[in-house]
Amino acid sequence: MGAALGVLLTASAGAQTSADIKGEVWLPGGPIVPPGAIARVHLTATNLGPDTTIGSVGVGAAFTPNVGSRNFELLQLDETPPCTVRATVFVAPPGQLSTVVVSIFMERMLAPSESATCIVGLRTFPESPAVQRVRFGFAPLTEDPDPSNNRVSVEIRTGSPPPSTQPIEIPAASSQALLFLLVTVCAAGSVVLRRTV
């Protein structure tokens, strides 16, 4: 998940199968996540059709931490399975920004009108920005006729007095890099799914 927490993207693979995936994000406890606290984040993907996805639906979040600080962490919880969470840190040379990539797999195919939800944890830190926008991208391993509903943003706050009233936009990775990443992670999830079905 390269650069800013999550540009939601659609991965396309094969023109004969088409599934319109709609992504939704919900924080049951609200947008306030005090430093050190772990919020439950519900990530829901709904297949609006017309076809069944050919592999596991993936959710991607990518961000570049602010210089000298951490923004937040996405992690697997006891209630996360059967979904899985994988985080990768791409360390940049000194003076440059490293990229944190988080891949979330639903580990199942979705038929038309079917939904699936993953519950993951989101933790903030003392040095986290007081207000920041987290972006998630939902990616089916099929052609998506309407990628506009794949991208979902949610604003989180640590409860500390913000230096300004404007949410901090964490620099996002390029669309090409994120698209390549999500195609790769969804393909990997599809392989695992096919082996277990």
Question: Could you name the key traits of this structure?
Answer:
11% helix, Immunoglobulin-like, 197 residues, disordered C terminus, disordered N terminus, 36% strand, mainly beta, five-stranded antiparallel sheet
Mean pLDDT equals 75
CATH fold name, please? Immunoglobulin-like
* Quaternary state of the chains: single chain
Structural class comes to mainly beta
CATH H-tier superfamily: ntegrin, alpha v. Chain A, domain 3
CATH arch. level architecture: Sandwich
- Number of DSSP helical runs: 1
Question: How helix-rich are the residues, as a percent range?
Answer: 10-25%
The best one-word shape is: globular
Radius of gyration: 16 Å
Regarding CATH, which class? Mainly Beta
Please outline the major beta sheet.
5 strands, antiparallel
- The fraction of residues assigned to DSSP E strands is 35-45%
Domain count: the total is 1
Q: Alpha-carbon distance between the termini?
A: 27 Å
Element string (H = helix, E = strand): EEEEEEEEEH
Low-confidence stretches: 1-15, 164-177, 188-197
Tally of DSSP β-strands: 9
Strand order of the largest sheet: 5-6-3-8-9
